[in-house]
Design brief:
By secondary structure, this protein is an alpha+beta fold. 45% of the residues lie in helices and 23% in strands. It has a five-stranded antiparallel sheet with strand order 2-1-5-4-3, with helices on both faces. The chain has a five-stranded mixed sheet with strand order 7-9-10-12-11, covered by helices on one side. A two-stranded antiparallel ribbon has the order 6-8. Strand 11 and strand 12 (359-367) form a beta hairpin. Helix 5 runs antiparallel to helix 6, helix 7 (221-238) runs parallel beside helix 8 (259-275) and helix 8 packs antiparallel against helix 9. It is elongated and about 115 Å long. The termini are far apart.
Length: 368
């Protein structure tokens, strides 16, 4: 019987020593009296370092007071407790642990020891968090895709209806020259809007697949801003807005970049600013940043502004602050992502400063 008991004890000792789970045994007061090798491997503490110390050495305030009370209430009642909580390794690194804690009773039913069998679940926790995040992103992406398809359909159908409608009206025999010219102007405007939509879709696709080619050369800000003025001045007049250019005595200064891409960026930002500004002005300018040897471009408006929670999202493909079909502003949410993609290809970055009801300033930096 003694031999059998010794063999059983040897097997149990081997199982405890070889277990991948951390096993800790304390006395009735919670002072540690035994740990297995996995405890040292997981926590970094040797058996000597924790012997006689309380288990809270691993859990400095991580377990809530409520959960701690439930744990000790279960143990004192002779029951086991199971739960997950965060512990801290000797190195100071936090890790997640799943624990099964149970009391060890003597023949009189008194608690002599407390045994804790623990599993490091940090990686599975991370995987779960990543799955939850991926699920949320997939759902958000699905919503975004649905909203995009709706908006895209609306954005294409609106100018197309204008083209078809006014083309039909041109077939009427009783039209005078003035009416014909007006209809032709409206058809051209709708065609331009449709063309811009197609161009933007192609540009987004090229940026996302790395097919945009950068061709850099030197040119002056005076030449650049002249082109921007030519492209956007009439649009600003249509909205009764002042379009202001601030070169800050940098007219003849040169930048080494892709002029065509920079024109696309500034045109898009200016037209965007005009669209979202009911009254006041839109200011376009450039400053020299001596701190990091870059040029700082800005487009400032006195428009409706953007809530702070959307400051990063507006640069995501197809995102719109107001995605409803009843919104007051046209567009499919491609302008800013295109600007961001092109600016990054040119070696810069873009950001926005804005407040609802006050206006917005879009900044972007480019190397000299």
């Amino acid at each position: 019987e003694r031999k059998q008991a010794e063999e059983k004890l040897r097997l149990l000792s081997r199982a405890v020593a070889d277990s991948s789970l951390s096993i800790v045994i304390s006395d009735a007061d919670g002072n540690i009296v035994f740990t297995n090798p996995s405890f040292t491997r997981i926590t970094g503490y040797s058996a000597e370092e924790v012997h006689g110390r309380k288990m809270r050495i691993l859990n400095p305030g991580k377990l809530s007071l409520s959960d701690s009370e439930k744990l000790w209430s279960a143990i004192r009642s002779g029951n086991y407790w199971s739960g997950e909580y965060q512990n801290r390794k000797k190195s100071g690194e936090n890790y997640w642990e799943k624990s099964d804690i149970s009391p060890i009773l003597n023949s009189k039913g008194e608690i002599t020891n407390i045994m804790s069998i623990n599993e490091d679940i940090t990686e599975s926790k991370k995987m779960l968090e990543e799955l939850v995040k991926a699920k949320a992103q997939a759902e958000e992406s699905d919503k975004l895709k649905s909203a995009f398809l709706q908006n895209m359909s609306h954005e294409i159908r609106t100018p197309l209806n204008g083209i078809l409608g006014f083309t039909s009206l041109l077939e009427m025999d009783d039209l005078d020259v003035e009416e014909k010219n007006e209809y032709i102007t409206l058809i051209k405007r709708s065609s331009d809007r449709l063309q811009l939509m197609v161009d933007n879709i192609i540009e987004v696709s090229k940026i996302s697949t790395g097919q945009v080619h950068i061709k850099k050369k030197q040119f002056t800000f005076k030449d650049l801003f002249f082109v921007i003025h030519e492209h956007t001045d009439q649009f600003a007049n249509d909205f009764n807005l002042n379009l202001i250019f601030e070169l800050n005595n940098l007219d003849n200064c040169k930048i080494y970049s892709d002029k065509v891409k920079l024109e696309i960026i500034l045109n898009s930002l200016v037209i965007n600013a005009i669209k979202f500004t009911k009254s006041g002005s839109v200011t376009v300018g450039v400053l020299e940043n001596h701190n990091d040897d870059t040029w700082l471009f800005f487009v400032k408006d006195t428009g409706i502004g953007i809530d702070k929670s959307f400051h990063n999202k507006i640069f995501e493909n197809f995102f719109q602050v107001d995605g409803s079909l009843s919104r007051h502003y046209e567009g499919a949410g491609m302008g800013l992502p295109i600007c961001k993609g092109l600016i990054e290809l040119l070696g810069g970055k873009i950001w926005v400063e804005s407040e609802v009801g006050v206006g917005s300033t879009f900044w972007f930096s480019l190397p000299k």
